[in-house]
Amino acid sequence: MGENKQRMLAGDWYLPDDPELAADSERRSRLCAAYNAEGGDPPAARDAVLAELLGSVGPGVRIRPPFRCDFGYHIRIGEGTFVNFGAVFLDVAPITIGAHCQFGPDVQLLTPSHDLDARRRREGWERGDPIMVGDNVWLGGGVIVCPGVTIGDDTVVGAGAVVTRDLPAGVLAVGNPARVIRTLT
User: Fold this and answer.
1) Rounded Cα distance, 30 and 159, in Å
2) Among 56, 87, 122, 175, which residue's beta carbon has the most beta carbons within 10 A?
3) What are the backbone dihedrals phi and psi of residue 152, each rounded to the nearest 5 degrees, phi first?
4) Which residues are the active-site residues?
């Protein structure tokens, strides 16, 4: 394994312009194209493509195409989770989604970060921070989850919210940045 991929997997700063990472991206591109093809394969064949693309997929997971990701192999989704149209999961770091979650259309889970120093950004340096979503979480349409965020079990995040920091279990959060407005019973 090359240095940049090792650094990426360790959560360190790395340069994504790397032949090994480009090959991983080509794999992802091929699998996403097969999964997202209109009038494509029957459901069982699509499920097989998803299983090959992602790190793990629980039983009964449904993802409506189009679906986009960086690599796929960093994504783990628990059983019975539903992801609506237009999801973007940028998985340069692990993305772990619990069981029985509901994601509205156009949800984005974004693990990459770029350096605040302009010179390093121009050079292409980036790193990733993992995202964890608990069981029974509902993310409304257009929710954006930023790098390093954990969302607790049974939490609901309102449509259009931008989640910039951890959310505890069993709350309703809305806004930009998302803020807890009440506890759910």
Assistant:
1) 31
2) 87
3) -70, 165
4) 114
CB atoms within 10 A of CB 76: 17
Q: Rounded distance, CA 107 to CA 80, Å?
A: 17
Match 């029985």 to its residue by tokens: 100
CA dihedral 137, 54, 52, 1 (to 10 degrees): -160
> Amino acid letter at 21?
L
Q: What is the pLDDT of residues 7-42, one digit of tens each?
A: 999 999 999 989 999 999 999 999 999 999 977 668
Place of tokens 């539903």: 82
- Residue 92, judged by CB atoms within 10 A of its CB (0-12, 13-18, 19+), counts as buried
How many CB atoms neighbour CB 64 within 10 A? 14
Tens of pLDDT, residues 54-81: 999 999 999 999 999 999 999 999 999 9
pTM above 0.70, yes or no: yes
Question: How many angstroms separate the Cα of 105 from the Cα of each of 6, 23, 60, 164?
Answer: 33, 29, 18, 19
